[in-house]
Amino acid sequence: MVRKPITQRIAELDERRRVLLTRLGKQARARDTRRKILIGALVLYRLENARDPAFTSRLREWLRAELPGFLTREGDRRLFDDVLISAPAQPNSDREEER
């Protein structure tokens, strides 16, 4: 059995290290993307299902203040038209019934 020269073994180990670092980077990006998707889903859920109208209102106002500076592409801005464009105030039927 012929042993590989040390320089060849080092080169193979370097290549293996590069492959593993690439895989690690892909895993980190996938995890980061998943976290962004989940936090976005939570925010959209809270906007659409206002269990706490005061919180939902504050969240919507915060997004209106922050999103325009964060979104750089026009196509991205259009995705959030429903959040960025003020909806007309709708009467709260629960409050009217209390009066």
Summarize the structure.
The chain has 99 residues and is mainly alpha-helical.
Report mean pLDDT, rounded to a whole number.
88
This entry's quaternary arrangement is single chain
- Beta content comes to under 5%
Radius of gyration, in Å, reads: 26 Å
**Helical content, roughly?**
over 70%
Order of helices and strands: HHHHH
The number of domains is 2
Pick out the low-confidence regions. 88-99
Q: How many strands appear in the DSSP assignment? A: 0
Largest sheet: none
Shape: elongated
Number of helices: 5
**Structural class label:** mainly alpha
Distance between the termini: 94 Å
Topology:
Blueprint lengths: L5 H43 L4 H18 L3 H6 L1 H4 L8 H6 L1
Question: What features would you describe in this structure?
Answer:
The model is unreliable at 88-99 (pLDDT under 50). The protein has 99 residues and is mainly alpha-helical. The protein is built from five helices and no strands. This is Mobilization protein.
Short key terms for the protein model shown above:
5 helices; Mobilization protein; 0% strand; mainly alpha
